[in-house]
Specification:
Elements: H1 16-20, E1 32-37, H2 47-60, E2 66-70, H3 80-96, E3 101-107, H4 109-121, E4 130-136, E5 151-154, H5 176-180, H6 184-193
Parallel strand pairs: 1-2, 1-3, 3-4, 4-5
Helix pairs in contact: 2-6, 3-4
Length: 196
């Protein structure tokens, strides 16, 4: 193989105005970004289910950069602030990284955050930036029409939050391990990978 080098004298002159039309550095914009709302009382960040989803997705799309954003909200009983933060982040990314495919998600209370965000907090037209929505242990099941075809709503067997009224219910079935260890997170990552 031969190696070619260019000196500054070999470069073509470029007017200063030409630089203004260039897109922002793509290195700062991932190909995909998972925007995930953690469950109730989990520490700030993605939470256990969100971390597992991101790791599984990265393994399924090794040639694509996958970023992650943990929705900033108190994870107590307030979903409105989380929905506002999720919506604000999607809009910000649409402006600064318009080619990044957004994946929204949440576990337990965080799934309700994603439901509320997609049901009215994300402005019309922004849904085209969202490739998929992955929900886990979702007690509300409110999927907005614009996101219906791109949403996977996982409910672990025996989880009383997302299957109220079932006879064989166990509160332990709602815990993060029921979603991670059962393969439901991995199934969701497959779903997401097929849509990005």
């Amino acid at each position: 193989t031969e190696i070619y080098t260019l000196s500054l004298h070999d470069a073509l002159p470029i007017s200063p105005l030409a630089w203004t039309s260039l897109p922002k550095a793509s290195a700062a914009c991932p190909g995909v970004e998972v925007v995930f709302a953690r469950g109730r009382e989990e520490p700030p960040g993605l939470g256990a289910v969100g971390d597992a989803l991101v790791n599984s997705l990265r393994a399924k799309v090794p040639n694509m950069s996958v970023g992650a954003y943990g929705v900033n909200y108190p994870a107590n009983i307030d979903v409105e602030s989380g929905a506002n933060d999720m919506s604000g982040h999607v809009q910000s990314m649409a402006r600064s990284c318009p080619d990044t495919r957004e994946v929204l998600g949440g576990y337990s209370l965080g799934a309700e955050v994603a439901d509320v965000a997609t049901a009215g907090h994300i402005p019309p037209g922004m849904d085209r930036h969202v490739a998929a929505v992955a929900l886990f242990g979702n007690g509300t099941h409110h999927v907005a029409p614009a996101f219906a075809g791109k949403t996977i709503d996982q409910c672990a067997q025996g989880d009383p939050i997302c299957k109220p009224g079932i006879h064989d219910m166990h509160w332990s079935s709602h815990l993060q391990a029921s979603y991670i260890d059962s393969g439901l997170v991995d199934q969701a990552a497959n779903f997401v990978a097929g849509r990005i």
